[in-house]
Amino acid sequence: DIQMTQSPSSLSASVGDRVTITCRASQGIRNDLGWYQQKPGKAPKRLIYAASSLQSGVPSRFSGSGSGTEFTLTISSLQPEDFATYYCLQHNSYPRGFTFGPGTKVDIK
Amino acid sequence: QVQLQESGPGLVKPSQTLSLTCTVSGGSISSGGYYWSWIRQHPGKGLEWIGYIYYSGSTYYNPSLKSRVTISVDTSKNQFSLKLSSVTAADTAVYYCARVDILTGYYWDYWGQGTLVTVSS
Fold first, then answer.
1. Is A71 exposed, middle or buried (0-12, 13-18, 19+ CB in 10 A)?
2. Fewest CB within 10 A of the end CB: N or C in chain B?
3. How many beta-carbon contacts under 8 Å exist across A and B?
C-alpha cells in the first residue's frame, strides 16, 4: 500500500503570508497526485491535479509542484477564504486505489 | 448538475452491519468513465477512502477495510450502496459518497453532503 504523509499537520498564518505544505509518498507515484481543500461541514474541493496543474476556477495564488515522492502546495498570499484543511490525494496505486494524506489545517494566527 | 445523496440509519449497534445508499441524480451511473466511491471521515479527523464500484459492477476496496466492505450498484435505480460488517465504535464517522471522473485525472468532482453514522449500543 502507498502511504502518504503531510507536514505540517497544522499551521497558523496571517492574511498575505506565503504558505507551503508538503506531502510525501512512501513510494514513487510519478505525478499522480491532487490537492484538495476542505472547509468545515463541506465536501473537499480539488485545487491542483497532476501535481502541478491548476484546476479550472481556482485562484492563481495556489500552485503545486513535485514528482515521485515529494510534493508541495503553495499559497502565495493567503486570503481569508483560504483558512481550511488541505489534503493531498494519490491515485497511482494499481489496481487503482486512492490514499489521502492526513491533512494540514491552516488557521488564523 | 450531478447530485449525490446518502441515506441510511444514523445509528448502528456494535457487531451489526452498516448499510448506506447513495442516490445519484442529474447523471447516469451507467455511463462509463466514473468510479462511484465511498469515503469516510472520523470526527475531527482526515479522509479515508473506503472503496469504489464501476457501473459494470467491478469493485476495489481499501485493503485495510476489504474484509468487511461490500459495495454494490443498482443501475435501474441509479444508486450504489455500501455495507460494512462487524462495526465497532471505530467506524463512527461521516460517510460520503462521491463520483470520481477517470478521464480528468481521477477528479473527485461531485460529493454527497455526508451522513453521520454512530456506532453505539
1. buried
2. N
3. 52
